[in-house]
Design a protein that fits this description.
It is built from 9 helices and 10 strands. By secondary structure, the protein is of the alpha/beta class. A hairpin with a 2-residue loop joins strand 4 and strand 5. Its main location: membrane.
């Protein structure tokens, strides 16, 4: 047996779940964010490679959702920088709108237009924001709705769908914009338990197809199945990060061990 004391610690390696990862696509450098006196993000440094799936976990109030929302400037930052595909995220204006179109986002609530059909919800963005021809937008929307398993619901209004179906429509709507990266902010937290897997299965499929994804979630099974890297946050800081196998079997920090002991025993 090798003498472990004499071997250098190579550190955590990203899980090779989806093949070779590409160059950095999303970079957060020294990002700070306050809500009044509350320091919700504390000098965050995080890089997401092209094709990588990063899952962010941690207790409530740790800053996970705020971090996710800063990446397309739904939340402003106080200091630091956010770079997407080599370009710094602008603060406002047309350049911000253009860059936002490259960052798909799926929220806890589905945010579908209630008075428009499923098909119209998916085609509206490409037609209005990107100038895509209606016939092309419709064809692409039907492909995406089939991909997420709700192609037969295209003519219905959102209220006629289950929560799981609505969330899958929301994923198709984000994909219709042709994003370079997809952000998921607790996408299953508003769903009934029986609907969670149908959404997670779509997300796993996207991961296997090589979509760059940053996912805030409490679904540890998804993290094990699909993530290249798990990032654990607490009190506005990134406490540790590692590939899923390393993180779930041998977390380094006491905070992570305590967190996992509470959620994995329920």
């Amino acid at each position: 047996m090798a003498d472990l004391a004499t071997e250098p610690d190579p550190g955590p390696e990203p899980a090779p779940a989806h093949g070779e990862l590409g160059p950095p696509l999303v970079e957060l450098r020294g990002v700070d964010k306050h809500f009044g006196a509350l320091h919700v993000l504390k000098h965050i440094d995080l890089t997401v490679a092209r094709g990588e799936v990063v899952v962010i976990i941690g207790p409530s109030g740790s800053g996970k959702s705020t971090l996710c929302r800063t990446i397309n400037r739904l939340e402003t930052i106080d200091s630091g920088s956010i770079v997407i595909d080599g370009r710094e995220l602008p603060e406002e204006g047309r350049e911000l709108a253009r860059l936002r179109a490259e960052v798909g986002m799926v929220f806890q609530s589905f945010n579908l237009f209630a008075h428009r059909t499923v098909l119209e919800n998916v085609t509206l963005g490409p037609i209005k924001a990107k100038g895509v021809k209606k016939s092309d937008a419709v064809a692409r929307a039907r492909e995406l709705l089939d991909r997420v398993g709700v192609g037969n619901q295209a003519a219905k209004l959102p209220a006629q769908l289950s929560g799981g179906q609505q969330q899958r429509v929301a994923i198709a709507r984000a994909l219709a914009m042709g994003p370079k990266v997809m952000l998921f902010d607790e996408p299953t937290s508003a769903l009934d338990p029986e609907m969670i897997n149908e959404v997670l299965d779509v997300m796993v499929g996207l991961a296997r197809d090589g979509m760059t994804m940053l996912v805030v979630t409490h679904e540890m099974g998804f993290a094990r199945r699909a993530a290249n890297r798990v990032v654990f946050m607490d009190a506005g800081e990134i406490v540790e990060q590692a590939d899923p196998e390393t993180f779930f079997t041998a977390p380094r920090s006491e905070r992570a061990r305590d967190f996992l002991s509470k959620i994995l025993t329920h």
